[in-house]
Amino acid sequence: MTKSDLAEMATLLRVLCADMVENAGSGHPGMPMGMSDVATVLFARHFKFDPEHPEWLARDRFVLSSGHGSALAYALLHLTGSPTMTLDELKRLRRKDSLTPGHPEFGHTPGIECTTGPLGQGLATAVGMAIAERKLADELGEAVAGHRIFVMAGDGCLMEGISHEAAALAGHLRLSKLTVLFDDNAISIDGPIGITSSEDVLGRFESYGWAVIAVDGHNVEKIDDALEMAVQLDKPCLIACRTRIGMGAPTKSGSAGIHGSPLGTSEITAMRETLGWSHAPFDFPPSILERWRSCGERGHAARRDWAVSVATEGESLRQRIAQIEARQPLQPSEEVFQAIRETAVKQLAAKATRVSSKDVIEQLVASCPWLLGGSADLSGSNGTRAGAHSDFSRDHAAGNYLRYGIREHGMAAAMNGIALTGAHVPYGGTFLVFSDYCRPAIRLAALMGLKVIYVFTHDSIGLGEDGPTHQPVEHLASLRLIPGLRVFRPADAVEVAECWELALKYNGPSVLALSRQDVPLLRADAETNRSSSGGYILTDDDGQVDVVIAASGSEVSIALAVREQLHAAGCRARVVSVPCLDLLEEQSDEAREQLLGGADPLRVSIEAGATLPWRALLGPASLNFGVHRFGASASASELYELFSLSPHAIASAIVARRSVQP
Ligand SMILES: Cc1ncc(C[n+]2csc(CCOP(=O)(O)OP(=O)(O)O)c2C)c(N)n1
């Protein structure tokens, strides 16, 4: 295609995006109009994809990190021939039940690789995709699985802190398949970037170990040269495309005003005049549309050739491709789970649940080559690295353990990218208190329904002397509020094995909250996974009980000690272990009521954290023991005394309440 062919295609794309936003009555025309030339060159000359097969393993990935520019992604899908992205869908931008929601959503719109909208997340997720690509190309061969990841990111994405973590990691790992097309328009919502930023973005990326290229983002030949160069490099590449936001709008381009509002009737008419475009909205000259369609057809042919060559490959490789393309969930066999539970029940010594988790990981590594471990510089403390692990590095793509560095947010986003590729299940560790640093990416994992496992250790004041900065208080409660995220807090080695099993079987994200301090083994049975209902009766008195104590994690053994003391005081108590409140909430009301002993017994909860979720479960008449202020620097046993979480303090409070309300 000639330069003028590309220019016409870019104009069609630019006008279409402006018309889509105009038709919607709201949205963001500035970014798509500014980046139309870059997008055209990328899709016409470089991007490998098949619109009819968005699941193709070897396709290049396009991540629109500036998710507000969603019109661009949808328009590209339509123009290149996606069968689901019809013209009608483009006309329904931002409408209810359309395939064209305000920001791109993975799993909702075929062809959208990643949910984007929170700035910076797309870029950081793409780093995980580039890690997964290296692993896949190493496993299956470059010809079968190699692909590139192209990201469009604006000033906003690159200002966000997460871009620093993600880009530094990508540079360190030399993720050469990653190319970021920076929409360098120097405008954000409040105005010119100069009012808030003086940084040298290119210098920054260079210092991370990236190649940087600066081009005129409206010069199709220069863009083409830059992309040509980027794919030859042995490191990630940032192409800073100097663009004019809203390019083509005669009075509004170049200003913040066009970032997030439709152009308006007079401006859009004037835009048509300026661009010499006489066609009505959504009416495309057939010759230009044909050119766009040919980009998709080129990819279609490439996929066909690829399919012919992989058809001659062995059965196991073809099965692996089918697994990835169908996004078939990866999980160990039932025998592996059974063996892990049986090992756990034999370990009689008291052990921190983080150590029991490491025991599980040691057993999983051998049978799960698709499991990718990692930690944000706390491998030893989190117990995330097994003896059989080897580190993934720029020189060792076969490694199955990621050293994320002290980059919790970058780690969580990269895990999303790894999970999105569909070939691996990532797990990553840090302290529970630092889940705050991961939270925006955890939320996106939940929104996308990704199988990602967070190994969050040091899960309460029980971590002791490191003090209140390290002691989570509100974290369990707040993580439980994220829809679709399962928060597991196992009480002993058997529950740890069960919760790992449940996390690996769940097609969504899971948190494993694990103790630093030792806990005794509470269970002697491991035949069935009792954690699967979220909560179960651990110890009961025959017949009627006066008190039901529900607890999680390290507080379950405290609940058992409380029960002993109550027994001595003539009060019969049931202990319910609740390793996962989310799963318990999914049970029927009847099952839950039965577990909690109906209306008569006094309901009690013990968890060393905010008590809100327990009050919601047990009702306003319940007694809830927890932590309602920040912790302190002292030994775990001193802190449990200080926060009235010792068996004696709890038993006394229960007896006192019962004497008032027998
Ligand atoms: C984490 C986050 N913070 C704030 C926003 C709201 N927001 C959307 S776009 C934008 C400005 C982005 O500027 P830029 O990347 O330069 O985009 P452009 O104006 O060039 O389209 C902001 C603040 C967001 N989507 N995500």
Report what the structure shows.
- The chain has 662 residues and is α/β, with parallel strands linked by helices.
- It has a 6-stranded parallel sheet, with helices on both faces. A 5-stranded parallel sheet has the order 1-2-3-7-6, sandwiched between helices.
- β6 (211-216), α11 and β7 (237-242) form a beta-alpha-beta unit.
- α1 crosses α13, α9 (161-173) packs across α18 and α22 crosses α27 (647-660).
- The protein starts with a helix and ends with a helix.
- It binds thiamine diphosphate (TPP).
Brief overview, please?
By secondary structure, the chain is of the alpha/beta class.
Strand order of the largest sheet: 10-9-11-12-14-13
Overall strand count = 20
Q: Into which percent range does the helicity of residues fall? A: 40-55%
Which small-molecule ligands are present, each listed once? thiamine diphosphate
What's the Cα radius of gyration? 28 Å
Put simply, the count of helices is 27
The fraction of residues in strands falls at 5-15%
Give the mean pLDDT: 97
Give the helix/strand class. Answer: alpha/beta
Shape: elongated
The major β-sheet equals: 6 strands, parallel
Give the termini distance in whole angstroms: 86 Å
- Uncertain stretches of 5 or more adjacent residues: none
